[in-house]
Amino acid sequence: MRAFLRNERLMLTVLLVFALLPPLFQLMGQEYLLSLLNRILIYGLAAASLDLILGYGGMVSLGHAAFLGIGAYSAGILAFHSYEGSAVLNWPMGLVLPGSESLLLALFVAVVMAGFFGLLTGSISLRTRGMHFIMITLAFAQMFYYLFISLDRYGGEDGISLFGRGHLPGFDLNNDFIYYYLCLFILILFLVLARRFTTSRFGLVLRGGRDNEQRLRALGFPVYRYRLICYALAAAAAGVAGVLMAHQGEYVSPGLMHWTKSGEIMVMVLLGGSGTLVGPLLGAGVLLLLEEVLAIYTEHWMVILGPFLILVVLFARNGIHGLLMKIGGRDD
Amino acid sequence: MSSVHFVPVFLMLLFVEQLLNGLQLGVMLFLMSAGLTLVFGIMQVVNLAHGSFYMIGAYVAATVMLKSGSFVLALAVALPVTAAVGMLVELTVLRRLYERDHLDQVLATFGLIFFFNELTRMIWGRQPLFMDVPPWLSRTVELLPGIYYPSYRLLIIAVGILVALFLYLLFSRTRLGLQIRAGATNREMVAAMGINIRVLYTLVFGLGALLAGLAGAMAGPILAVEAGMGESILILTFVVIVIGGIGSIRGAFVGALVVGMVDTLGRAFLPQIFRLLFDSAAADRLGLALASMAVYVFMALILAWKPRGLFPAPGN
């Protein structure tokens, strides 16, 4: 119980820092840091959604970036057709979806599409275990990657450039501050829902399946179905992160779905501490900051980052979260 | 309409050529997957960095070839170097991960990819290296009347088949092969029988790296040698292993040939088939898109039918 409360406290602290940093940046006259922080926040959302699968469900998915990409392309394709004045879908029987720059519509489409493809690919992937699961999720993600590369209409390998950040009634999203706080709001919403989800009966079954699948099955729980629903929900959340990312950078490309992106998101989860929800936020922050800082000193920063990751795996098993918990209290 | 009669002949020639191309990609994939499936099967380790050995093999071979002009020398240097790098990686990093879960292994070997890709950029720069086909292999051979094929690619196919034969003999006829197979089935038992499992692991890892290095060195003259070249073949290698069944050399062989064929024939003929059906530029693109996705769809179908692959090793 105490550990749980401390986890809550850490989460509140982190969110408070996220809320207070932007005004501070402005006081310091370092506004460009805001876009970095915004990126951290969005990647944090993507990583936290992967944490549902990875940390709570115990499923090692190496294809999460596909859902990020599906979300981003939902926003990108809607906006593309809006610029062009054409329809995204023009099917008979009045089934017409016009292009649009509405953020809410993009979010809705992204959740539906990412959730649907999560359900579809998950229903096949989850029939496998262990290494097979890692590789089949990876392969599905590559499949989407190649699919979007081949879509010439939507820029192929170059992707789609957005003109502006889309519309939300009552808000000027092109204002970096407003967009940042909108992202923060969505992140908080996700964390509240995810926290309720993981502590619910559903979450307990999920974690039980992670720790001892046989016992859960013997108790009569259909573990497969629980996992599938978790997988689809996490995919939908990643879709949301994808939309936010598309509008934040005003750019969508297949590179978002490349398997190294899935790997990076996974690194964020592990670096921060899996199965904690707040850990992935910290992981996203540390990884992106590290990239920025190392890039100042050398263009070959990956040669340092690689061994750093190996050291984290070997010696800091519970990530930053575990480290903070160790410092924070002696009562485990 | 007079060309109608030539179409079947032309298509047949094209088909045979693409069949050979598929075979060549297949044996390349076999070289990659044979080592990796052993590492997966015996040590239960997910190694994402296997593509790095392929890249190192290609770089070392290209460098030696540029300096000396001898392809044989290039191979003779590249193979031991990649084997040594592989064993070094096993001793320093992988060995500590055997008892960990797959998640840790994925993360650590992902770090290795970062490291090796950037290291090659530091040593050889960002520009790709181009390795020439050795002059004595740059001719084409007339296999059947009207069917010409580059002799270098034929060499690749021959080497792949020889390696498959070698591995078959190694595993079925030698004591080392027996121990490796036993290790794949039950490693505790093998250790209990007094076999030094650590040395065995290092050797198997070195062998896997050597085969990947061989694939990389052989691929040098037909691809651009550049940082990150290992990743594209790595993913296909995973597909092969998953289709074949983790830990099974036979599965790797069958899987590699099937994936090589599906990928090559898909790319060669799907766009044309779609052009015949729909007759537009969009059909072309649709065909290409489907062709690049074909192996993944194929894998999904196989796994939906047999979740453990075609030839699951007994221990897994």
TrEMBL record, chain A:
GO terms for molecular function: branched-chain amino acid transmembrane transporter activity. The chain crosses the membrane at residues 36-54, 66-83, 103-121, 133-151, 177-194, 224-245, 265-289, 301-320. The lineage of its organism: Bacteria, Pseudomonadati, Thermodesulfobacteriota, Desulfobulbia, Desulfobulbales. It comes from Candidatus Desulfatifera sulfidica. One of its GO terms (cellular component) is plasma membrane. Its main location: membrane. InterPro entries: ABC_transp_permease (IPR001851), LivM-like (IPR043428). It holds the Pfam family BPD_transp_2. It is found in: Cell membrane. It is a multi-pass membrane protein. The keyword Cell membrane applies. This is Branched-chain amino acid ABC transporter permease. It comes from the Bacteria. Keywords: Cell membrane, Membrane, Transmembrane, Transmembrane helix.
